[in-house]
Amino acid sequence: MPPVDVEALHIHDLAYSVIRVLNDKGEAVGPWAGQLSDEALVEGLRHMMTVRAFDARMLMAQRQGKTSFYMQALGEEAVACAFRMALRPGDMNFSTYRQQGLLIAGGYPLVTMMNQIYSNAKDPMKGRQLPVMYSSKKDGYFTISGNLATQFIQAVGWAMASAIKGDDKVAAGWIGEGSTAENDFHSALVFASTYKPPVILNVVNNQWAISTFQGIARGNAATFASRGLGFGIPALRVDGNDYLAVYAVAKWAISRARMNLGPTLIEFITYRAGAHSTSDDPSGYRPKDESSGWPLGDPVERLKKHLTLRGAWSEERHAQAKGEIESLVVQAQKEAESHGTLHNGPHAPAGTMFEDVFSEPPIHLIRQRQEAGI
Amino acid sequence: MTRMTMIEAIRSAMDVAMERDDNVVVFGEDVGYFGGVFRCTAGLQQKFGRQRCFDAPISESGIIGAAVGMAAYGLRPCVEIQFADYIYPGYDQLVSEASRIRYRSAGDFTTPLTVRMPTGGGIFGGQTHSQSPETLFAHVAGLKTVIPSNPHDAKGLLIAAIEDDDPVIFLEPKRLYNGPFDGHHDRPVTPWKKHDLGEVPDGHYTVPLGKAAIMREGGDVTVLTYGTMVHVALAAAAETGVDAEIIDLRTLLPLDFEAIEASVRKTGRCVVVNEATKTCGFAAELMAVVMEGCFHHLEAPVIRVTGWDTPYPHAHEWDYFPGPKRVGAALKRVMEA
Fold it and tell me: How many C-alpha atoms does B155 have within 13 Å on its Cβ side?
């Protein structure tokens, strides 16, 4: 493990290799191992299982017509869940729509997430946003845009503000490998390189940008991590399906930021095992068996195997945990549905549509609201 | 009171805002060490340090995007885009992000930021230093759009913009930086030092956003305008002898409906003047506002005078710029109807 004040040029190899802790046998090995207790790992496993169970229920709810849209994180749960455990209260994530693990691992109520997905009467976003576009300042979760990549430079700006105020809070920007092609990714790297604010720039490489494979955004010559090197930003490439490796690298990068040593770029290699969203069918653009052939395996299975090897877990405990989690998710769903669903309501009153456009409603909005009669 | 140019007034506004609130930070291209290509930020870095006034890379999307993140943290960034013509790479961060953060998070996050940019023509800037893109901002729900016509208003409006809790686009008519310009390009330039509206209070004051100013009271026809064209309209009224009531809108959004409607109901006639291109320009919106609110008071069709629907030309600037001759002709025409 390199010292946290390392210069980018001394760790070039880490942008082209893959940092792993769990080997194929399920053992934790190498310099990044040994950071998490049995209890912490069991908690991590439960977080990932909760994300998976939550996604499965919400996918089904969308198919049942209870909401318009859903996006699952199937196969890449370790990235957000493990990263979240390395952050502190007050830190801020500028995430994409596929980091629900940040909220779930942070203890955010499942019912509130579902209320948002259903756009029901208790949706904190008042029915204004597509499902999964959560926002919670107190939980360190910046409002999701849905326009790709814009949040990446915003994370850099937030971190610059933290540095200007002499604060020790850090920001984490999140982006998919496909949208690294957007200008916001490049402006984020320029600003991060120029001002060296306390920001972690996370590229989640799940291989697929809807239907286009990662090479369309990357070209053939480089890794996504290596994009950071030209900017003098330390860059690491990590096995994103290895909970222990994600945590170890996240902790390293976050402590760099916390000590005001500057930004870090991390590429998490993972695999989007499901569709991009409920609006596409992967069988139209990739082989059906590709997911099962993915060499880095499944993050839940890998952590389960490791914990079992450590003697901290068993098939029996796993089945029991799965049952408990599923029943928690079902209970949450029942409660959320008691507050309404998209098509059946109830929703926030329609007049709230005119609120929060500005701090105070200007006269044209007051007139339009009167005209709408709501 | 001190006589100031509009540049000095704008600088004074940032100075006052930075003095009063540590959360105000200023940055942009050439803004820090050099003090801006128009000198609007000269001396601010020396006074407030490099943490609060600094140079940015040439990346408008980066400047606006970083400002959104800073504002979400709790700062009040006031950023400069070197020319309004350069805003387009940053437009996505304004339209899709800054304008909607409060709405989409239901007030959980807000983005109190000000984006300053020199606008308009009259300086032989060609197509890349002369555009008037105000409509592109006024059209966006969640953005406020401000455009002063003199040093006094510029300072008061800019302080109000920085203190406002919403994102504000602050357009600075660059032809007015050093003096009022009535469109007579062949006459000597009048400096602000010799003009009453160059009188600017030294300390803190605000001109409220959303309030128009009556620059000339009159009974025959209402002229709705803003920015450089305020001075062109004043010249046109003087030269034609038409008793025009000239309204400087100052803020395009929120728009001062009361002032517009009260004046047009009084005069029964209206000419709308803007420097920008004609089709879907802000003049078209003003005509619609007058039709919706004052139709039964109108004694003549509303006329607009605007720039032509071409890119802004270089050599033919004075054939393009809607000067006092065209505005005067419109005043006479609306009186004949």
Answer: 25
DSSP letter at B321 equals: S
CA distance B158 to B137: 17
Cα(B144)–Cα(B134) distance, integer angstroms: 10
From first to last of the 374 residues of chain A, give the pLDDT tens digit.
Answer: 999 999 999 999 999 999 999 999 999 999 999 999 999 999 999 999 999 999 999 999 999 999 999 999 999 999 999 999 999 999 999 999 999 999 999 999 999 999 999 999 999 999 999 999 999 999 999 999 989 999 999 999 999 999 999 999 999 999 999 999 999 999 999 999 999 999 999 999 999 999 999 999 998 778 999 999 999 999 999 999 999 999 999 999 999 999 999 999 999 999 999 999 999 999 999 998 898 889 999 999 999 999 999 999 999 999 999 999 999 999 999 999 999 999 999 999 999 999 999 999 999 999 999 999 99
Which amino acid appears at position B321 of this protein? F
Min CA distance, B141 vs chain A (Å)? 7
How many Å apart are CA A318 and CA A54, to the nearest integer? 17
Q: Does domain A8-343 have CATH number 3.40.190.10?
A: no
Looking at beta carbons, which pairs linking B262-266 to residues 24 or more positions away fall under 8 Å? B263/B214, B263/B222, B264/B222, B264/B290, B264/B293, B264/B294, B264/B297, B264/B298, B265/B294, B265/B297, B266/B219, B266/B222
B289 to chain A: nearest residue by CA? A364
Interatomic CA distance for residues B326 and B306, integer angstroms: 9
Q: With contact defined as beta carbons under 8 Å apart, do B120 and B175 qualify?
A: yes
In the annotation, is B195 catalytic? no
**Angle at alpha carbon of residue B171, lines to B168 and B177, rounded to 5°:** 140
Q: Write out chain A residues lying below 8 Å of B26, CB-based.
A: none
* Residue-range domain boundaries for chain A: 8-343, 350-374
Task: Give how far A194 is from chain B: nearest CA, Å.
Answer: 8
A149 Rama class: left (phi>0) / alpha (psi -120 to 50) / beta: left
Whether a cis peptide bond, with omega within 30° of 0, leads into B167 is: no
Which architecture, in CATH terms, is B213-336?
3-Layer(aba) Sandwich (3.40)
CATH superfamily of B2-200: Thiamin diphosphate (ThDP)-binding fold, Pyr/PP domains (3.40.50.970)
Alpha carbon distance A177, A198 (integer Å): 22
Chain A residues whose CB is inside 8 A of the B57 CB are 187, 190-191, 194
Q: How far apart are CA A251 and CA A267, in angstroms?
A: 14
Give the Cβ contact number of residue A45 at 10 Å.
26
d(CA B304, CA B286): 9
Same fold, B2-200 and B213-336: yes
Structure tokens at A189: 């790297």
Q: Say what the ipTM of the complex is.
A: 0.97
Q: Are A123 and A336 in contact (CB under 8 A)?
A: no
Nearest to A144 by CA among A96, A202, A83, A77: A96
The domain spans of chain B are 2-200, 213-336
A135–B105 C-beta distance less than 8 A: yes
At residue A266, what are phi and psi to the nearest 5 degrees?
-125, 130
Token reading at A248 = 């170890």
Interface touch A150/B110, C-beta < 8 Å:
no
Pairing of strands A171-176, A199-205: parallel
